[in-house]
Design goal:
The chain is an alpha+beta fold. Helix content is 38%, strand content 28%. Strands 1, 2, 3, 4 and 5 form a 5-stranded antiparallel beta sheet that branches. Helix 1 runs antiparallel to helix 3 and helix 2 packs across helix 3. The longest helix has 17 residues. It starts with a strand and ends with a strand.
């Protein structure tokens, strides 16, 4: 599996519910085409735990999982290089973000 951890800060005008719906729509579109395995819950940063050493102001997190890089690469291509529904969902998601950090890892 390949996992993507998205750490983001939403624009002040974007509600948590609106963001969650945008993630749901993007995930559903990708899953329908078998370009995404799972999307985890959206969570908020836990305030000041002793082991949290990241000083960034990113406060909203979620992860997406892909079966392999073979599934991941077409998903990224669909979201960034085409003019179809995926790109519309992805563009809508980007419009919600003030700042972000994306981290991939493989298990």
């Amino acid at each position: 599996m390949v996992h993507l951890l998205s750490a983001v800060k939403l624009k002040p005008s974007v509600s948590a519910a609106t963001f969650a719906e945008t993630i749901r729509q993007l995930s559903a579109a990708l899953k329908q085409e078998k370009l995404l395995s799972t999307t985890g819950n959206i969570g908020k940063r836990f305030p000041r735990p002793i082991m949290d050493t990241d000083e960034a102001d990113l406060d909203t997190f979620f992860n997406m999982s892909f079966e392999s890089r073979t599934q991941l690469e077409p998903a990224v291509t669909q979201m960034t290089e085409t003019d179809d529904l995926y790109q519309d969902h992805h563009r809508h998601l980007w419009n919600h973000l003030y700042s972000y950090r994306f981290t991939y890892w493989k298990d």
